[in-house]
Design brief:
By secondary structure, the chain is of the alpha+beta class. It folds into two domains: 67 residues, 2-Layer Sandwich (VC0802-like); 72 residues, VC0802-like, CATH 3.30.2130.10. It has five helices and six strands, in the order βαββαβαββαα. The protein has a six-stranded antiparallel β-sheet with strand order 2-3-1-4-6-5. Strand 2 and strand 3 form a beta hairpin. The longest helix is centred in the first third of the chain and has 11 residues.
């Protein structure tokens, strides 16, 4: 149950984010979630989109540096301690979280976080064994 995330390494300049979103819009690609981390000169834009292969192709053809990676989307209880319980389970089982970001939508009283771990397969198995749902790409796109 992995999600194909697109990461774009781009120069930090006026219009840089517009360029990416414009390419996606022209190719009828919908952004479901995003995270932007930057330094003074460059940034990494991480995107969950409905057509990741088409997005990667269109962005590369525009001369952008694109990487695809597997991430997990996990609904968590939208209450104090909801995220802590998931992180505790992963930590107890030796799963390292490289980064994570929140998904703007909610589903049935739950918030959704997107996370990149050092072992997505192990993380998915650990979470599933303790009753924590891991969303499929289709489920995430439909929120």
């Amino acid at each position: 149950m992995f999600i194909n995330q697109i990461s774009i390494f781009a120069e930090n300049k006026p219009g840089g984010l517009f360029e990416v979103t414009d390419i996606l819009a022209q190719n009828n690609i919908d952004i479901t979630a995003l995270s932007l981390a930057d330094t003074s000169d460059f940034g990494i834009l991480r995107l969950i989109v409905d057509k990741p292969e088409a997005a990667a192709t269109a962005l590369r053809e525009a001369g952008l540096i694109v990487k695809q990676s597997e991430v997990l989307a996990v609904p968590i209880e939208d209450a104090p301690g909801g995220l802590t319980r998931v992180l505790h389970t992963l930590s107890e089982n030796g799963v390292f979280i490289e980064y994570m970001y929140a998904f703007a939508g909610k589903m049935s009283g739950k918030a959704v976080v997107v996370m990149r771990t050092d072992d997505a397969q192990k993380a998915s198995k650990v979470l599933g064994s303790c009753g924590t749902e891991v969303l499929s790409a289709r489920e995430l796109y439909n929120i």
